Amino acid sequence: MKIIIAGLFIVLAGVTTISSCNAFEINNYTNNQHNQNAAIETLDPIDKIEQDCISKTADTQEINKCSKKAQQLWKKDINKNLAELNKILSAEDYKKLQLSQTSWENYVDKEYEFINSLTYYTQGTMYLNTREGWRTEILKQRAFILREYLNTLKK
Question: Could you give the CA distance from residue 125 to residue 154 in angstroms, rounded to a whole number?
Answer without folding.
Answer: 44
